[in-house]
Design brief:
9 strands, alpha/beta
């Protein structure tokens, strides 16, 4: 599904939720077919576990602004932040499935059990820059993964959002893969991520995000990995004051909804959603870049040491992780396309 069609389809699922829960007519409008729904007012609930200053919140606010303007108010959006409607991504996705939330941004990994191909996004050193990430994710590679997701779940992908560039951090800096030998490191729950850090000599450990500050402070884990913004917002730099720029993951997040809503929207509402989805994605990515720069500067002012790392040894030591993942996921062609884009 291209970006415009994705933008339209995301809101389809919200209307069914609204129709089923708040209208005497139930799901009548959804049975009329795509684009043939009557021009009824639709209210959508967008929710994130992050705070109101986050990039996700900026994306949702832009979506709200544009869709309400383009639809002349027939589509309205409520934006909920700070975990008001779900304190973590799993809970938000569950709420999306049950209909209490309509729009969500979350890591691809939550759907890995039903669509293992999404672990493609977790490959280490898959992308070498933000520009490289965008050229792949907004092109054929992103399109292919969208089709896998939408063909195997009840979700519709609205856009690819960013969650920064992930780096190593702990009480001591690292410069080479050898420095990771034997260190416990909190990671995301992903086979590819686990294989990555094991290949580098670390001991991947599972710790809930809201328990990480105490885990770092008490030495339950030696280190972790995340982007500048999340490290700063979670205050982890207070207890892990060394960040090593491994830049191993240009992070992808999905902006999506359930796949049952689009047919209930009128054609003009669909057009409004298409436009809003594109503008929201631009706003989220730009805010993500700005917040990363601001967070880094603030942490350095507060005494955090940030060291550059020669990434080549890390890239070479994880090459087999990328190659094995591409083969096991059946995405060798997509992997080769990403490599080709590096050379352009």
């Amino acid at each position: 599904m291209n970006k415009k069609w994705m933008g339209a389809s995301i809101l389809a699922s919200s209307l069914l939720v609204v129709s089923a829960c708040g209208s005497d007519s139930g799901g009548e409008s959804s049975s009329e077919g795509s684009g043939s729904g009557s021009e009824e007012d639709v209210n959508l609930i967008a929710a994130t576990q992050l705070d109101s200053e986050s990039a996700f919140a900026a994306g949702f606010e832009k979506f709200k602004e544009v869709v309400e303007e383009e639809s002349d108010g027939s589509v309205s959006v409520e934006v909920h932040t700070n975990g008001d409607l779900g304190g973590n991504e799993d809970e938000l996705v569950q709420n999306l499935e049950t209909g209490s939330v309509d729009l969500v941004a979350a890591a691809p990994g939550f759907m890995a059990q039903s669509v293992e191909e999404v672990d493609f996004f977790s490959m280490p050193y898959l992308f070498e820059s933000r520009d490289h990430w965008e050229s792949a994710i907004d092109g054929e590679v992103g399109q292919s993964l969208e089709e896998e997701i939408e063909g195997n779940t009840n979700f519709e992908v609205l856009g690819y959002w960013s969650a920064g560039v992930r780096n190593y951090y702990g009480s001591e800096p690292i410069e080479t893969p050898e420095d990771l030998e034997g260190k416990s490191l909190r990671t995301q729950d992903s086979p590819v991520v686990t294989n990555t850090w094991e290949a580098l000599g670390a001991q991947p450990t599972s710790v809930a995000w809201d328990e990480m500050y105490q885990a770092l402070q008490n030495g339950v884990v030696d280190s972790a990995e995340n982007d500048f913004t999340n490290i700063y917002l979670a205050s982890h730099h207070e207890v892990a004051d060394h960040i090593s720029q491994t830049e191993h993951d240009f992070t992808t997040r999905l902006f999506f909804t359930s796949s049952d809503i689009f047919d209930g929207l009128s054609e003009s509402q669909q057009e409004a959603v298409m436009t809003a989805a594109e503008e929201a994605t631009k706003a989220e990515r730009e805010t993500d870049r700005e917040l990363a720069e601001e967070s880094r500067a603030t942490m350095e002012e507060e005494g955090v040491e940030i060291n550059e790392v020669d990434k080549q040894p890390f890239i070479e030591q994880t090459e087999s992780v990328r190659e094995d993942a591409a083969e096991n996921l059946g995405l060798v062609e997509e992997y080769e396309k990403v490599l080709d884009l590096k050379e352009e």
